[in-house]
Design brief:
It is a single chain. This protein has 124 residues and is α+β, with helices and mostly antiparallel strands. It has 2 domains: 85 residues; 34 residues, no CATH class. Helix content is 42%, strand content 25%. It has 5 helices and 6 strands; from the N terminus they run αβαβαββββαα. The protein has a two-stranded parallel sheet. It is globular and about 45 Å long. The two termini are 26 Å apart.
Amino acid sequence: MKIRVGIARALAGRPHIVLLDEPTAGLDPPTARAICELGIKMRDLRDVSSIFVTHGLENLNYLTSTYTCIDEKGEAVFMKEDDRLCLINTKIMMLREGRSIFYGSDEELFKLEDPYIRDFLLVE
C-alpha cells in the first residue's frame, strides 16, 4: 500500500516522468502485478514516461507485452500485444557495473547471444 500511495503522490503533480526503483521488490505476485499495471496505465493513458528499475524478468515481460485501453464502458482493460499491431513504446536498458550493455526492445534483448545476458535471461 505504501508503494501505491507513493506513486499516487508522485502523480499528483502531473509529472512527465516517474522513477520507480524496485517497486515490486518483496511483494506477493498479485500486488506486484497491480504495481506493473499502474505503470502501464501511466504510460498508455496518462502519457507519463517511467523508469522502472527491476531485476524481475516477469515484470519486464509484462511491461513490454501488455497495453491498456479504455473499453466501451469507460474502464481500463489490459490486453496482450501478441500478434496485434501495437506499438508499445517500451525500451529496456540493461546495466552491468554501472555501464549500459544493452538498450532496445524486448525482442532484441531475447535474440542476443551475449553470454552475460543469456545467463541472466535463463536464470529467471
